[in-house]
Amino acid sequence: MMRFLSFIIFLSGISYAQIGAVKKIDSLLSLSANYEFKDGLQSLKYAKQASILAESINDNELLFGTYLQMADCLYTLDMFDKSLEYIKNIEKKNILNNPIKRARLKEVKSNNFEALGLDELNLKELNEILEILSSNETNDAREIKARVYAYLSNYYEVKGDFKKADEYINKTLKLNKEILKPKPIDTFIAKAYICLALKKTDSAFYFINKSFDSQKVKGKYSFKYTLYMVLADYYYYKENYPLALINYQKTLNDMASFNIKDTECSMMVKEKIYKIYGKLNDRRNEQKYLNEFKNELSTYNHENNKGLQKAVNLILDEKDNEKKVIKKKNKIIFFLIGGLSTLAIAYLYLRNRKIYKRKRDVLVEKEKLIKKNRELEGQKKELNKKAYQNQFNELISLAKNNNPEFLILFEEMYPIFTANLKQLNPHVRNSELFFCALAFMNFSTKEISNYTFVSVAAVQLRKHRIRKKYNIPSHEDFNTWMKSVEQMQLM
């Protein structure tokens, strides 16, 4: 009896501990969801703690939830390669035992593919979600379908098929009336952008107002940066640049106040801001926001390139798993059929052809991904080249106009030359630095005379004095020597 009672107490202790762990996991996942857009790293920490607990009690249901939340957090942080790794872990553990789970996993996967620019894979995942949930009319299924229709709307909007984009966003608007937890703000914003694309400005403004009205229900402690951005884009479309600038700045401020990491949004806003300042002939602010945009784009492309390789591996692993399943089925069929060897051989032949076709498809998909990666690198180089050319043209223009801002931009573009010249002469004045900079840029004596409004003789005299000061040999070309300053190895 004592042994029996001890056993019962032991089992009760295990059960109580598991119940406590389940409650703790649910609490951590709830915290992770709440922090996902406020503090991405904190959200990830909570999700990681939950996954460790789920692994300790070996509960497949909880493992799925925690791994999926980890993948979602990493996607939000623009760490697409890590997000795809967790998706891979879920698939390896084979814990996708119901349609809702399969659909949710594919949703996060499609989000990663969309961010990586893998359009065909993104579209494939979205269509498979709708197929999985085609006969499922539960509230969870409707919520997922509402989001998928919105994703499809965005897909066709990017492709320029605004009519089809409008059809899908209307499906989301319809489902929002039927589900328990709709996202009206996001849907109204998406609808507003489509209306702008279709040149229905009155309709766009109507849905922008509806999004702000829905935001009031949420209260003042929730972020509004997506609302400010669509309103700014509306004014940009209407060419009301002052109001557009105000709302773009509100977008960035709101993201900063809520510590939101949305790289794509930040890049798009800064791109629009520098373009507006360009239209307003405000070169200083134009250059400032252009530099910020380029820096963020460079970081973003770097993360994308890492994620592309993970996507390739993920696809290849999926195909390998399919081949293993097929081989296993072939063995079972072979032993069951026994004497029907002819049928078995035919079956295996067809299966092997299918495997070969899938393998070939994988190689084709891999080549597409590699090509996409090269295109991204090419676009990055082209953007850097154009940005440098724009800066150089601006520098030439400032020099020709004898503009004092020339020296600021010159030092930014050629910091090594400036530093080396100051090391050769720590007391060099700005006027002398300006003169040397013109020579560095290979302006002729006559051009320097024209742009600085002095005589040719005065320019030649100044060159003579600088030659003496820096010990420039008389036989060496003055401009060539100035170019060599940038290559000097000084202590």
TrEMBL record:
This is Tetratricopeptide repeat protein. It comes from the Bacteria. The keyword Methyltransferase does not apply. SMART domains: TPR (SM00028). SUPFAM superfamilies: TPR-like. TPR repeats lie at residues 146-179. Gene3D superfamilies: Tetratricopeptide repeat domain. The chain crosses the membrane at residues 332-350. It comes from Chryseobacterium candidae. Residues 359-386 form a coiled coil. Keywords: Coiled coil, Membrane, TPR repeat, Transmembrane, Transmembrane helix.
